[in-house]
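Replying to the earlier thread about multi-chain prediction with a worked example.

Input:
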Amino acid sequence: MSDLMSQRTATISVLVDNEAGVLARVTGLFTGRGYNIDSLTVAPVEAGGATSRITIVTSGTEMVIGQIKAQLERLVQVHRVSDLTKEGPHVARELALVKVVGTGNNRVEALSIADTFRARVVDTTVESFVFELTGASDKLDAFIALMQDLGLAEVSRTGVAAIARGTRTI
Amino acid sequence: MFDIRNLGISTNSGLTQRSNRPTEPAHTNIGTQTMSADVQQSGAEVLLRALKEQGVEVIFGYPGGAILPIYDAIFNQNSIRHILVRQEGGAVHAAEGYARSTGKVGCVLVTSGPGATNAVTGLCDALMDSIPIVCLTGQVPTHLIGNDAFQEADTTGITRPATKHNYLVKRSEDLARVVHEAFYVAKTGRPGPVVIDLPKDILINPAPYLEAAAQHKSYRPRTEPDVDQIAKAVAILKNAKRPMIYAGGGVINAGPAASAALTKFVRTTGFPITNTLMGLGIYPASDPQFLGMLGMHGTYEANLAMHGCDALLCVGARFDDRVTGRLNAFSQGSRKIHIDIDPSSIDKNVPVEVPIVADAGKALVALQKAWDADEARVDSHALASWWRQIDGWREKKSLKFTQDMRPGSIIKPQYAVQRLYEIATARKQEVFITTEVGQHQMWAAQHFHFQKPNRWMTSGGLGTMGYGLPAAMGVQIAHPDALVIDIAGEASTLMNIQELGTIAQYKLPVKVFILNNEYMGMVRQWQELLHGGRYSESYSAALPDFVKLADAFHAKGMRATSVDQLDDLIVAMLDCPTAVIADIAVDQGENCFPMIPSGAAHNEMILGPEHESSGAAISDAGMALV
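Result:
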């Protein structure tokens, strides 16, 4: 029973009908019942397709996460709910656009660190860079933390997209 | 061309309008009887045709500008009977009463803007109590949506958390499909309310008709039980020394056959059974295996049996906080089996050992079969000993009250309910009871004994004052020859009092039995027990004279102020061929017992002044709970 009470993060993928109001319904479910949304992404599965995939990173006790999944599954427009964290190995990636403003040593250092992180430069002026970085969320967190002292000006992140490893599909 | 018999009093008298007159040219209405396949009907006619295909016979509604095309189509047909309410909330509660007393989907028709928003309380109520409702709401034309148009409201946004599902029909080709889907969603799996928002241009423009599809693309809830889980359940129950069965509204939703299956299983096993508020009538109340309702105002024996059992079979109930009391003390020693059609109800409040996701009726049939096939025997000594313990608790007579029978004595509310029960059920007619919310609701649950399902209509989950009167209307429409009695409080009755007009129009012989204590009784009780007797805003001031009010609404008014008048009033009320409002003055200080105060456990019940109180103090944490 104590397993039910310990907190964990869960990355949940939801396959839904691509219809007006579905996202509002899913987010309304989370806010209405007081569940966390740490990040949320949504996009159609095929271009102009009939289904969309919503990926939500949430956290809570095992009992709460069980409830979240059950509540999502009973929505009429939901086809499948997959708890990627629980079901096995999965890949989770995020993209960030990071603006760093600076000159002199800070600028050089920022470029060097970006290189180490394999971030790409997508915009440059003599005083600023915009870096594009993809990777696991903690890699993005680390890069942004490092840029703090080097002139970090603005960050735009996408939220997590995730998919199971191997042949397993949602 | 149209049949005036269905209209009751002429609908042209005192025609009330919610909006300005529309200026579009009147469109021609073609009767639905003679249609050639390739002539396109208007959206409104397609809608009515779809409703008819779904078996809708009655719709409760109120007109308005945005919904006029449907009202125009209704005027020219006979298959669906429209009941004109006096406020849209009344329409939804009436549809709830209709649905719960028949097992059919209740149907509502309201206009845009304020019509739809007035329906929200009823929709929340249906959602909480799992009542199948399809609510059609008018909407401004599609090109005006989002423009702050006249009588526009974001109905789909507002009703999204208040419904099981909702739809906004933006294209005419979707109309028929959406209507069929809405009915499917409303009654499949765990039933619930569904809203269809209908823009006016969609109703006016031609639309194609489609019959109901064979299957829904994504929503296919599981109804068949897993046989391994059933086997595990049987194993637990056969090894139990102190078993208990706890059944709720889900068994009612599964149909009368489910109640019959449960009754058979209870009699086969010899186990004790308790019902939730929503489940009363599943099992015959007069049977000795029935321990009465459980929970906050349940009987002593039901609550202690829940507390002390070692195996608990829950069928179609959801371990609601009114039932469980303090969760960490709830039925701790028992192994739990939970049969529910909604997987999200399982392990929500109380972790269970054997979850069974299934329709209650199918699960009970499977359970009976597995039980009969299994050769193991229940420990009859242990069971007999458990029954002796339960009978000992019964000796407490936790529902006991004392009515002073000397003429002129004040009437105790429990006595009023008891006499109503005794006199009403002695008659030949079927009796249906609706209630409002509060002390009278609990006393009705305790002292009116139900032998069959679908006879008891009450607002359990949301606890909506103003439910009882319109719900009684809905029940009477469904059962014109039955005795329909709304056991009410005087404060609740005022909340939807305008529906007396509907009752008069359709000549519904509903009996409104008001237990008038001149207080919001349940609020006053909590203020007495938890807030030092500070009766803040719980007194019913400036009450109308209900007898005069009855007269004003073309009904019969009656009053009883002392015990010697009661029986005569009840007989006169039940004999009266018209609607009756009975104003019964009852003891104002009477509190509803037993009571498990919030934050307390099942074995910390407060019993009434008839008994020595266990006097459980209410903790600070308990004070913060409802």
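Residues 1-38 of chain B have pLDDT under 50 and may be disordered.

Feel free to reuse this layout for your own posts.
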